[in-house]
Write a structure and sequence with these properties.
Layout: H1 3-9, H2 20-49, H3 51-58, H4 63-83, H5 87-110, H6 115-128, H7 131-137
Length: about 150
């Protein structure tokens, strides 16, 4: 029997089932992305309805338009990475959480705190750092067969 036939007869390993917490993180990211798209649509409608007023309001605050758009695009890429169990998705999510926690800390110290997003970000960091979850995103070591 050749090695090709042996490989065909070998049963395929069961697919790894995504943990419930990972589904919840993906759902929260999807909601965040949808809210970002909604915000972008509202801004776009404002640009179409009254372009002169829109640009007079947006130009001094261009950073308030660029940063959320960038975060939205990064969030979409990270969602794909998490869904496909890529290590860069895990690292990207940790970087997103670091950004969100920094902005939450700034909001806290300036008096415009929102406790629910702060709590969710802390819970997601703890969850993603559990050994069982980190193992899902580790790259296999070449030639060793170790995940």
């Amino acid at each position: 029997m050749s090695s090709i036939q042996v490989d065909r007869q070998r049963p395929k390993p069961d697919r790894v089932r995504r943990p419930f917490g990972l589904y919840m993180i993906l759902i929260l990211l999807a909601v965040q992305a949808l809210l970002g798209v909604l915000r972008a649509a509202i801004v776009g409608i404002g640009a179409v309805v009254d372009p002169a007023e829109f640009w007079s309001l947006v130009t001094p605050n261009m950073l308030d338009v660029i940063v959320p758009t960038g975060v939205l695009l990064i969030t979409l890429v990270v969602m794909i990475g998490l869904w496909r169990y890529r290590s860069w998705g895990w690292y990207g999510m940790m970087m997103l959480l670091a950004y969100h926690m920094a902005t939450d800390a700034y909001a806290y110290f300036t008096g415009s705190q929102e406790p629910l997003p702060m709590l969710l970000n802390v819970v997601m960091v703890f969850y993603l750092n559990q050994r069982e979850v980190r193992v899902l995103f580790e790259e296999p070591i070449a030639g060793k067969g170790i995940p």
